[in-house]
# Entry
Amino acid sequence: MVRQQKIESIRNKLVRKMEELWSNAGHTLSKMKNDDGRFADPFDQAAIESNKYVELACRDRERELMLDIKETILRIDRGLYGICDHCGRVIHEKRLLIEPMSKLCMECQKEKERNHKRKNRQWAMKDISYNHV
Ligand SMILES: [Zn+2]
# Structure
């Protein structure tokens, strides 16, 4: 398979993943609407609204993922996919197959991870608290 075909198959996978995330999100929205029946009482309405807020906040990571996928598809369509954002070198195909949303080559990614180690640790802590909610 030539590189372009590989990129095309990655694009197809990303589109499918996107659709999956969208349908999950849609399911959540309809569930929120139906759980407590009609929005008769204004206090019920408020309760539903706050539940909705919590649920949407918990879905931040999915939303982020959707944005990442969307951006990656755009990069493919613009012919920018597989090129390192930082140094402009071609990102190795193996890396793209493992991490299709990579925007950096291996070297620049390592560099970035070194620079953001502290920040990444904070994100890791956040992940732990998410799991306990
Ligand atoms: Zn690079």
About this structure: The pocket of zinc ion is lined by residues 84, 86-87, 89, 104-105, 107-108 (CB under 6 Å). The chain has a mean pLDDT of 78. The domain at 3-132 is CATH 1.20.120.910 (Four Helix Bundle (Hemerythrin (Met), subunit A)). The helical segments are 3-35, 42-58, 60-77, 93-98, 106-115, 117-132.
